[in-house]
Amino acid sequence: GINAEYGTISWSLNFFGAFFILAAHEHYTIDVIVAFYITSRTFAYYHVLANSLAHKQRNSQELTWSWFPLFSYFEENVDSNILNEYEWPWTPVIEFVSRRYRRFTRLRAERNRNMAVKNMSKVE
Q1: Residues 70-81: pLDDT tens digits?
Q2: C-alpha torsion sign, points 87, 93, 96, 100
Q3: Which end of the chain, N or C, is more open, meaning fewer C-beta atoms within 10 Å of its C-beta?
Q4: Are 82 and 51 in contact (CB under 8 A)?
């Protein structure tokens, strides 16, 4: 499904990014490995907490606070689990471009009509 596609694309981009950072000699290998580990674990732990209903209970607030101090603030207005529903990021871009293109072609057609009418009046 689409979740597997996003996962594959995401991991591929992560590895390509790490490779190019290392290939450009911008960081030591251990820096890149540690950064990748820390960011991927932080992302995973945060979203596990966000999708568990346990953090909604009062007695687990202290545990949540110890993991992520701002977690309660970020998730205070969330009443349910976050769904794994995605949309392609370029859909709004395509819609915007197609609207602009339709407007442009309409304006160009009007301009061409006006020019034709103007040229016809010059001929007569």
Answers
A1: 776 777 777 666
A2: negative
A3: C
A4: yes
